[in-house]
Specification:
The complex is a heterodimer of chains A (239) and B (301). Chain A contains 10 helices and 10 strands. Chain A is globular, with a radius of gyration of 17 Å. Chain A has 239 residues and is an alpha/beta fold. Chain A has helices at 44-51, 74-79, 97-104, 111-124, 126-130, 141-153, 171-186, 198-204, 222-227, 229-235, and strands spanning 6-15, 18-28, 33-38, 59-64, 67-68, 82-85, 159-163, 190-195, 207-212, 215-221. Chain B has one domain: ABC transporter involved in vitamin B12 uptake, BtuC, CATH 1.10.3470. In chain B, strand 2 (138-141) and strand 3 (144-147) form a beta hairpin. In chain B, the strands form 2 sheets. Chain B has a two-stranded antiparallel sheet with strand order 1-4. The longest helix of chain B has 31 residues, at 2-32. Chain B has helices spanning 2-32, 39-57, 59-62, 65-92, 100-122, 148-170, 172-182, 184-189, 194-220, 227-242, 247-267, 273-287; strands at 127-128, 138-141, 144-147, 222-223. With 301 residues, chain B is mainly alpha-helical. Chain B starts with a helix and ends in a 14-residue tail after the last helix. In chain B, helix 1 runs parallel beside helix 6 (148-170), helix 6 runs antiparallel to helix 9 (194-220) and helix 11 packs across helix 12. Classes of the chains: A alpha/beta (239), B mainly alpha (301). Chain A binds chain B through residues 52-54, 73-75, 78-79, 83-84, 86, 90-95, 99, 102-104, 106-107, 135-140, 151-152, 155, and chain B through 172, 175-176, 178-179, 182-183, 185-194, 295-301.
């Protein structure tokens, strides 16, 4: 790990009366792909939502390059270069693909850079280019996921938060999406990847965290996690 | 034929006004899922502000008739927009995360407050706009004499609607408004400041309502402190008719309601004018609750 680029320190988050995160610590180095694994309800999505400011911690905090994020609003966090492709894709169904992508660049004023990124997104996901005028709601699940990722990339992120990009997709699409994530990372974007598809995620990631009911259970390099018998048994379906 | 044409043009002029007010209801509903019951009273406020400016500044001596109307409308739009924005800050924002019913009660309270404030300041008697500001020219069309004022009213409503449509569909801020209406959290993740967007909507909707208020003053001549209730209710009907939350729907619904009402009044009975409008509301709620245009659906095919 190079430095504490993004850090969650003793993070506690509550939904009304239920505590969803019981004081977790996560450190992400610049340029890493960090996978967060775990079953449903482990708190993975809550973790991402707290980084992007949709949820506020009851204790502890989120720090980006040493500065607190948890005191900022979501829209300010996006401006700092942290974008989030949320669970369930959440594309704007009744807007066109192009309008969705444009909204991703809402905080950006550098037209040249935005045009460059748009081009890059069309190279990553040529299908989006074919469908720019189509309403997002008419896309297939895989295409919507591409759009959700593309939209997050339009914000020119330093850190990209991806919540279950493989959810509900055919295996061949999952592979193609994960290949794209690797390429995005090679362009210098730090990635935090929440996944239930643990094997695919760990093959891609540098390091991983395993969560269970609001706690971090294991933290290790991705290679070590793939070999870990406990992880194999619980999340990789034995081997 | 002459009767029909007279009533049609009359209906279009009134319908344009309904449409302008309906836009305020529909935009706020689209973004907050809240019926802003005070909107009709903001419309009244616009009418009274226009009236005050007209009689106290003596504009009509200095400028031509149309210019006076233009200045009045712009002035009312600006002030009512500010009032709308304040209304949101005071009556709705603190209740953003509470029960939907709480916000509705607050909206009703705000409506009563604005209406009574106008009554206390301006009096309970009706006020009369000075006449002769708009041209009283009669234009013969197909041998029927139609007042030019009607076309002016309808044309100006259409112009405002086109400007709004262009703003919503062609600008980045407009796209942000649509995004917030669809999914607030997703919009936040795009870096959109949702509070700023809500404030913007509470500037635009009341501005259009304020413009409609001045237009009613100029068109009908007489304004009362409680006219926001009936116009508001009609415009609300128009918004439902077109599909609440749908901007083109409010435009179509408003114009359609104006025409239905005018023709109904002419061919059935003038006494049934309001009953006809509300029958339309009941019928639409029974047979097509999503309105004529409904929501722009994009389900997976």
């Amino acid at each position: 790990m190079s430095e504490h680029y993004l850090e969650l320190r003793d993070l506690r988050v509550r939904y009304d009366n239920v505590e969803a995160l019981h004081g977790i610590n996560v450190r992400v180095g610049k340029g890493e792909i960090v996978a967060i694994l775990g079953a449903n309800g482990a708190g993975k999505s809550t973790t991402l939502k707290t980084i992007s400011g949709l949820m506020k911690p009851s204790d502890g905090g989120v720090y980006f390059k040493g500065k607190p994020l948890h005191t900022l609003h979501s829209h300010e966090i996006v401006r700092l270069g942290i974008t989030h492709a949320p669970e369930g894709r959440r594309v704007f169904n009744t807007l066109t693909v192009m309008e969705n992508l444009d909204l991703g660049a809402f905080t950006r004023n550098d037209k040249e850079r935005t045009a460059f990124i748009l081009n890059w997104i069309f190279e990553l996901f040529p299908r989006l280019k074919e469908r720019v005028e189509q309403l997002a709601g008419t896309l297939s699940g895989g295409e919507q996921q591409m759009l959700a990722i593309g939209r997050a990339l339009m914000g020119d992120p330093k850190v990209l938060l991806l919540d279950e990009p493989s959810l509900g997709l055919a295996p061949i699409l999952v592979r193609s999406i994960f290949d794209s994530v690797r390429e995005i990372n090679e362009h210098g974007v730090t990635v935090i990847l929440v996944e239930q598809n643990a094997r695919a995620a760990l093959k891609l990631a540098t390091r991983g965290y395993v969560m269970e009911v609001g706690n971090i259970l294991i933290e290790n390099s991705a290679a070590a996690l793939l070999e870990d018998p406990e992880v194999q048994k619980a999340y990789l379906g034995g081997s | 034929m002459e009767e029909f044409f007279q009533q049609l043009t009359n209906g279009l002029a009134v319908g344009g006004i309904y449409a302008l007010i309906a836009l305020g209801y529909t935009m706020v509903y689209g973004i907050l899922r809240l019926i802003n019951f005070a909107h009709g009273d903001l419309f009244t406020l616009g009418a009274y502000l226009g009236f005050t400016l007209l009689v106290s500044w003596g504009l009509s001596g200095v400028l031509g008739g149309l210019a006076v109307a233009g200045v009045l409308i712009l002035f009312a739009m600006g002030l009512v927009a500010i009032a709308g924005c304040l209304l949101e800050r005071i009556a709705y924002r603190p209740l953003r995360n509470s029960d939907r019913l709480t916000a509705v009660v607050s909206a009703l309270g705000a409506s009563i407050f604005v209406q009574n404030a106008i009554m206390l300041v301006c009096g309970a008697r009706s006020q009369v706009y000075p006449t002769g500001i708009l041209p009283t020219t009669i234009i013969p069309i197909f041998g029927v004499d139609v007042s030019a004022m009607r076309f002016l009213m309808f044309g100006f409503s259409l112009l405002l609607m086109l400007l709004l449509y262009g703003f919503i569909h062609k600008t980045r801020l407009g796209a942000a408004i649509r995004a917030v209406a669809i999914d607030q959290d997703a919009a936040k993740l795009m870096g959109i400041d949702v509070n700023r967007i809500i404030s913007t909507v509470f500037l635009i909707g009341p501005a259009l309502g304020g413009a409609a208020g001045v237009m009613v003053g100029l068109f009908y001549g007489q304004i009362t402190y409680d006219m926001g209730f009936s116009f508001g209710l009609k415009a609300f009907t128009a918004a439902i008719l077109g599909g609440i939350g749908n901007i083109p729907g409010a435009m179509v619904g408003g114009i359609l309601l104006g025409v239905i009402e005018a023709l109904g009044a002419a061919y059935i009975s003038i006494a049934w004018k309001d009953a006809i409008a509300f029958c339309v509301l009941i019928l639409i709620l029974i047979f097509r609750p999503t309105g004529i245009l409904g929501e722009r659906v994009a389900e997976k095919i």
